[in-house]
Design brief:
Elements (H helix, E strand, L loop, with lengths): L10 H24 L7 H15 L25 H15 L1 H5 L6 H9 L2 H6 L5 E4 L15 E5 L2 E12 L6 E7 L9 E7 L5 E6 L10 E12 L16 H35 L15 H28 L5 H25 L1 H5 L5 H9 L8 H13 L8
Helix pairs in contact: 1-3, 3-7, 3-8, 5-7, 7-8, 7-9, 7-11, 8-9, 9-11, 9-12
């Protein structure tokens, strides 16, 4: 039976992540928001600490890499494993700063893609790499099935051609997990992911984007021109299974969507915590033992925001718990991402409004969190796409039947 309280074995990890967020990330948050594209060198020491914890086995799920599901182990008991540990630690780190978390070495979303679909040999070969993930294209946003970047087999290499945009950590990462199609005529079933090492001829970082939020994180446009990638860098099976369709590539999102939901939860929690303190300083006390309608409008609004936040948190933990226990979680991952993405944006912006001029000014981080949180409702599948996926799952309809 699922228990959504923090498991005892993960409490030390969660506490450590909170301390890091408070003492290492918060103090440099504004600095790197203003110095867009500057690499936060302070993160190198933090990354080394996380590597040490992971290698010692002291902190299962430390960082934002996500984990691979181990189908070979099934003791019949309930597990609270690395997926749950990851979402909880990620939420705490984003309580500090979302952009800085996304800038963490070796903690890219591409690492989650590798963990999701790589075979055992690839897991070992790409261990310790910092992997970005390149999916979005100029003409292909939310509908990943329409990817036009091509990968053509030529001897023992694939030749990749195409353009990818909004690649998080695309310039800093050691490698990029690129989604490309083996054969456009076969539709979404032919889409595979490839690990392209930094410095590979034909791979060029065209530019870095200037953004509304998460400015500490570099977001790149990458162009691939006759880029030759070793055939063994294709993640998972090279076979095109029309019956399976897009399921192989989409399995990546079952890991990454709960992580992005956790980011939204952490950023929203930061806003709520600071807003509660600022309201108290202004004489507005939130009383959790009285109905909202019997309190001030500001207190009632705050209670509503906290209720929304708790719903998003529970959905996210449920999606991670299901992955740990080898239960299909595609529906729950999309529900968590949809709820947390929307609620995160709503909470952070509402906190700015509740705090008035203090919330809008740069004297506090509330306005920054409102800017940062918006992307968490967009990348890894927009709000609208998540709702569409949930509807298809609940109604038992295919993507062709419900568009």
């Amino acid at each position: 039976m699922i228990n959504l309280e923090t498991p005892k074995k993960h409490r030390a990890l969660v506490d450590q992540a909170h301390q890091v967020a408070m003492n290492m990330l918060r103090p440099i948050s504004r600095k790197y928001d203003r110095a867009e594209h500057a690499y936060p060198k302070e993160l190198d020491m933090l990354a080394a600490m996380i590597d040490g914890l992971s290698e010692s086995g002291a902190s299962e799920g430390a960082g934002a890499t996500g984990v691979r599901r181990d189908e070979s182990k099934d003791s019949g008991t309930v597990r609270n494993g690395s997926n749950l540990a990851s979402v909880m630690s990620v939420a705490e780190m984003c309580w500090g700063d979302t952009g800085l978390l996304l800038s963490m070495p070796r903690q890219g979303l591409g690492n989650s893609a590798i963990a999701s679909v790589a075979n055992d040999e690839q897991l070992e070969r790409f261990k310790g790499r910092w992997a970005a993930m390149a999916i979005t294209e100029p003409g292909v946003g939310s509908d990943s099935a329409n990817i036009t970047t091509t990968a053509v087999l030529d001897g023992d290499h694939y030749v990749i051609n195409g353009e990818k945009i909004y690649v998080t950590s695309g310039d800093r990462a050691d490698s990029v997990v690129v989604w490309a199609t083996l054969d456009k005529s076969l539709g979404r079933a032919a889409i595979k992911s490839f690990v392209v090492e930094k410095g590979t001829p034909g791979m060029k970082v065209e530019r870095l984007e200037h953004k509304l939020g998460i400015r500490a994180s570099d977001t790149a446009v990458i162009i691939f021109t006759d880029c030759r990638v070793p055939a063994e860098n294709l993640l998972g099976s090279p076979e095109v299974d029309v019956k399976q369709g897009f399921a192989g590539a989409m399995a990546t999102f079952d890991n990454t969507r709960p992580l992005v939901a956790a980011m939204a939860i952490g950023c929203a929690r930061a806003s709520l915590d600071l807003t509660r303190d600022l309201l108290a300083e202004a004489g507005v006390v939130v009383d959790y033992d009285r109905p909202g309608q019997l309190q001030s409008a500001a207190a009632a609004k705050f209670l509503q925001l906290e209720a929304d936040w708790e719903g998003a948190q529970l959905l996210t933990m449920q999606a991670a718990w299901m992955a740990d226990n080898r239960k299909p979680n595609s529906l729950e991952a999309s529900m968590a991402k949809a709820k947390a993405g929307r609620v995160g944006s709503d909470i952070t912006l509402s906190c700015v409004e509740l705090c008035g001029s203090v919330g809008y000014s740069e004297g506090e981080l509330l306005e920054k969190w409102a800017r940062d949180s918006k992307i968490l409702d967009i990348f890894e599948g927009t709000q609208q796409i998540q709702q569409l996926i949930v509807a298809r799952r609940l109604l038992g309809l295919t993507s062709a039947q419900l568009k």
